[in-house]
Write a structure and sequence with these properties.
There is one protein chain. It is built from eight helices and six strands. It has a single domain, classed as 3-Layer(aba) Sandwich (Rossmann fold), CATH 3.40.50. It is an alpha/beta fold.
C-alpha cells in the first residue's frame, strides 16, 4: 500500500526527483513545533510543515520523505528545502544524513509542557497512557535525555532553540532562524493554513493553530495536577539536557529566551 502511494506521488508530481536541502526539527511533543512547522512551511523556499512520523536511516529515508509529502501536496516552484520534525524516540535519526542540511533542536520547560501533553491526550485519545501526568512526565524526561545524547554526539552543526522564545520573542527568534537557514525570504509571524492544519496525528489539533499567526498568550493548564516530586525531577532533567545541547561542539547558533 505504501509503495503504491509513492508511485502515485511520483506520477502526479515528477518534481519529487528534485533535490531538496533537508531541514529537521528535533524536539518533543507540545514544544510549539506545529507552530514553527507552519511558519517554516509558509515560506516559499520550504516544503513541509507537519510531522511525517518516519525515521531517517539512510538516503532512502529522504526519498521516502519527499514521496510522502508530495502524495498530499503540490510542489512549490521556488522551494529548495524540505522540512520534517521528529518528536519520539521510536523514530531513529542518523544525523549524518543532514550534514548538507539544517538541524534545529528545541526544548520547552516541563511546567506547561507536561500538562499540555495530558490535556491533548485527554481530548483526542482518552485511553492513552499519557492522559496520566506520571506517564506524560516519563515521556518528557526520556525524550529530552535522548535529545541531549543525540546532540552531544551529532556529526552535524545545529541551532538550539528555547521553544517558548518563538511565541514570546517572535521577531528576534524568526530573524535568527531565517539567518541560520540562509533564507532569501525571511520567516514571518503570519502563516498559511495548510491542507492538514488541525488534523489529528498531523501536529497540533487545537484551535490555536488555525489562527494563522503567532500568538503570545498560551494556556497554562493549571487545572491539571502533577506530583511535585515528578515536576521537580522533570525540571532538573530539563536544565541538564538544555545545558548539554547548548554546550555541544556542533551547536553553532542559539536562540535563548533569557537573552
Amino acid at each position: 500500500m505504501e509503495t503504491l502511494t509513492y508511485l502515485r506521488a511520483l506520477g502526479k508530481h515528477p518534481t519529487v526527483l528534485k533535490h531538496y536541502q533537508p531541514i529537521l526539527l528535533m524536539s518533543h511533543m507540545r514544544a510549539n513545533t506545529s507552530l514553527l512547522g507552519h511558519v517554516l512551511g509558509s515560506n516559499p523556499e520550504i516544503e513541509g510543515y507537519y510531522e511525517l512520523h518516519i525515521g531517517y536511516y539512510s538516503w532512502k529515508s529522504l526519498i521516502r520523505q519527499k514521496l510522502l509529502h508530495f502524495s498530499k501536496h503540490a510542489p512549490k516552484s521556488s522551494a529548495r528545502f524540505m522540512f520534517d520534525k521528529v518528536l519520539h524516540d521510536d523514530h531513529f535519526v542518523d544525523l549524518s544524513l543532514f550534514q548538507q542540511g539544517k538541524v534545529i533542536f528545541a526544548l520547552r520547560p516541563p511546567q506547561t509542557t507536561i500538562r499540555s501533553i495530558v490535556s491533548l491526550y485527554r481530548s483526542v485519545e482518552p485511553d492513552h497512557p499519557y492522559t496520566d501526568s506520571y506517564n506524560a512526565t516519563q515521556y518528557y524526561i526520556s525524550r529530552i535525555r535522548s535529545l541531549a545524547r543525540i546532540a552531544s554526539a551529532s556529526p552535524t552543526d545545529f541551532l538550539y532553540l528555547d521553544a517558548d522564545a518563538l511565541r514570546e520573542e517572535a521577531p528576534r527568534t524568526l530573524q535568527s532562524i531565517s539567518g541560520f537557514l540562509g533564507l532569501k525570504a525571511p520567516l514571518e509571524e503570519n502563516y498559511k493554513k495548510q491542507p492538514l492544519t488541525g488534523a489529528e496525528k498531523a501536529g497540533d489539533s487545537s484551535e490555536s493553530i488555525i489562527s494563522g499567526k503567532i500568538e503570545r498568550v498560551t494556556r497554562t493548564y493549571d487545572h491539571i495536577p502533577v506530583a511535585e516530586a515528578n515536576m521537580a525531577e522533570a525540571a532538573h532533567q530539563f536544565q541538564l539536557a538544555r545545558s548539554t545541547i547548548i554546550e555541544s561542539k556542533r551547536c553553532v547558533a542559539k536562540v535563548l529566551q533569557d537573552e
